[in-house]
């Protein structure tokens, strides 16, 4: 029998068409090169998520009513000491992520390769009323985070201010959104560009 691929690679050419995507990192990056990548798509009564990040620990997405950490439903893919990637459910209590035993994830799969944690799972669109599990048919801000793990337990995220979606996200609208990481934001703002032009003009003209 032919060998079976244990984890099908994430397709980015479907982004904005048959699934929604968020990319954070270098312009033009994909699921294997972005600092962080997330996709979502509806499949029947479920939403399938794909996550990937440049880390050997964990990668997560949080569903929030605002853009701040606290009171958020969080799904995380955690690389443990045995080399497996497990899907865990957390609830942010303030700045602390508390693991919740009731886990809505199913059809879980994950892999750790090339110093990247990548995973795929489904969770229901609708859930019985529960404080720690949100209904995905509603729109939420998405919190994106990743970081190291110690003996399979997540620790503080890699960057002080993890990226957040600019607006609430609807699972019924597929977008392909790119967010430049800090290393590529330096000269992207109009103010910085104006400053560069002014400095160049000053250097070319010289001092009086």
Verbal overview:
The relative contact order is 0.20. With 208 residues, this protein is mainly β. The strands form three sheets. The protein has a six-stranded mixed beta sheet with strand order 8-9-3-2-1-13, with no helix packed on it. Strands 7-6-5-4-10 form a five-stranded antiparallel beta sheet, with no helix packed on it. The model has no long low-confidence stretch (mean pLDDT 87). It has a single domain, classed as Immunoglobulin-like (Sandwich). It is built from one helix and 13 strands; from the N terminus they run βββββββββββββα. It is 8% helix and 39% strand.
Supply database-style keywords.
single chain; about 210 residues; mainly beta; Immunoglobulin-like; 6-stranded mixed beta sheet; 5-stranded antiparallel beta sheet; 13 strands; transmembrane; DOMON_domain; membrane
Quick take:
This protein is mostly beta strands and 208 residues long.
What would the average pLDDT be, to the nearest integer?
A: 87
Number of domains: 1
CATH overall fold name:
Immunoglobulin-like
Low-confidence stretches: none
Keywords: Membrane, Transmembrane, Transmembrane helix
Domain DOMON: 34-149
Transmembrane segments: 187-205
InterPro entries: DOMON_domain, FRRS1L
């Amino acid at each position: 029998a032919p060998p079976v691929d244990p984890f099908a690679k994430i397709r980015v050419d479907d982004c904005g068409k048959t699934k929604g995507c968020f990319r954070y990192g270098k312009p033009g990056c994909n699921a294997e090169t972005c600092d962080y990548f997330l996709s979502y798509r509806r499949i029947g009564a479920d939403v399938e998520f794909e996550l990937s990040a440049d880390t050997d620990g964990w990668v997560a997405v949080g569903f929030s009513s605002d853009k701040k950490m606290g009171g958020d439903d969080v799904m995380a893919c955690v690389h443990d000491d045995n080399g497996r990637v497990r899907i865990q459910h957390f609830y942010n209590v303030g700045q602390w992520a508390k693991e919740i035993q009731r886990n809505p994830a199913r059809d879980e799969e994950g892999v750790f390769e090339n110093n990247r944690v990548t995973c795929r799972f489904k969770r229901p669109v609708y859930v019985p009323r529960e404080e720690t599990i949100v209904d995905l048919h509603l729109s939420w801000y998405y919190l994106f985070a990743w970081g190291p793990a110690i003996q399979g337990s997540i620790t503080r995220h890699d960057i002080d201010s993890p990226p957040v979606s600019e607006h609430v996200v609807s699972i019924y609208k597929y977008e392909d959104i790119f967010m430049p990481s800090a290393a590529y934001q330096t000269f992207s703002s109009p103010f910085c560009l104006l400053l560069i032009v002014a400095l160049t003009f000053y250097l070319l003209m010289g001092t009086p």
